């Protein structure tokens, strides 16, 4: 494997960080790497809030479900899907602008995710660890108020950045045979069953704890209790009407 592929395949979420700060110079470089990601029609529909205030980081840690590493990591970023800037730019240039379309929500969300993943890879190449924080969508309005987000902007996820203070194991992924289909969609139950067995072994042997569960079992809360039913109304109120 070349070094880039090796780096990508070594990813793991880091939740314990040293006290070493992330320099402003490095942070700017990471954001520039993020901006190099593909963007639909070059819309660049994202903004990133660097949350520096210790009080605000503590508040976000609680709003995200008590994830304390939000407050203790070297730098904390909130990645926002931003349709305010591009629609206003088009309008200011004399264009007729229609807002609130579902496609705009999709474009902004995808642009933000692609940009953030570039930042994550760049950070790991510099020896940093990262952890995505989807928990900010538990209380998206409170996070938006705290960060002063205007209409047509919503917080997609946060990202903890910092120098790792632990070395967690790399979590196994689904076998390629389960996700790489040839020509048409095909059933992958057999591969999922094999993966469940592999994940049960991983959870039982990983450093820092043992968990007796399969991948399939760990998905249950995502489709039962962690549905975030408030997100549709929140997005509509932010101007993403999904027309």
Automatic annotation (TrEMBL):
Gene3D superfamilies: NADH Oxidase (3.40.109.10). The keyword Protein transport does not apply. CDD domains: NfsA-like (cd02146). It is an enzyme of class 1 (oxidoreductase). GO terms for molecular function: oxidoreductase activity. Residues 9-163 form the Nitroreductase domain. It holds the Pfam family Nitroreductase. InterPro entries: Flavin_OxRdtase_Frp, Nitroreductase, Nitroreductase-like. Its EC number is 1.-.-.-. Keywords: Flavoprotein, FMN, NADP, Oxidoreductase. Belongs to the flavin oxidoreductase frp family. This is Nitroreductase.
């Amino acid at each position: 494997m070349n070094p880039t592929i090796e780096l990508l395949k070594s990813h793991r979420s880091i939740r314990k960080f040293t006290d070493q700060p992330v320099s402003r110079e490095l942070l700017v470089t990471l954001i520039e790497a993020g901006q190099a990601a593909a963007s639909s029609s070059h819309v660049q529909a994202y903004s990133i809030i660097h949350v520096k205030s210790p009080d605000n980081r503590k508040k976000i840690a609680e709003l995200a479900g008590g994830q304390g590493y939000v407050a203790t990591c070297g730098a904390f970023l909130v990645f926002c899907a931003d349709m305010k800037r591009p629609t206003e730019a088009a309008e200011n240039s004399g264009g007729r602008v229609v807002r609130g379309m579902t496609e705009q929500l999709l474009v902004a969300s995808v642009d933000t995710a692609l940009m953030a993943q570039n930042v994550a890879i760049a950070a790991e190449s510099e020896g940093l660890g990262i952890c995505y924080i989807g928990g900010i969508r538990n209380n998206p309005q409170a996070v938006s108020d705290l960060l002063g987000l205007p209409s047509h902007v919503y917080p997609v996820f946060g990202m903890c950045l910092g120098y790792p203070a632990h070395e967690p194991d790399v979590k196994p992924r689904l076998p390629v045979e389960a996700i790489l289909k040839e020509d048409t969609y095909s059933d992958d139950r057999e591969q999922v069953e094999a993966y469940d067995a592999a994940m049960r072994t991983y959870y039982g042997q990983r450093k820092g704890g043992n968990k007796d569960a399969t991948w399939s079992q760990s998905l249950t809360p995502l489709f039962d209790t962690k549905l975030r039913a408030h997100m549709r109304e929140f997005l509509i109120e932010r101007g993403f009407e999904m027309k």
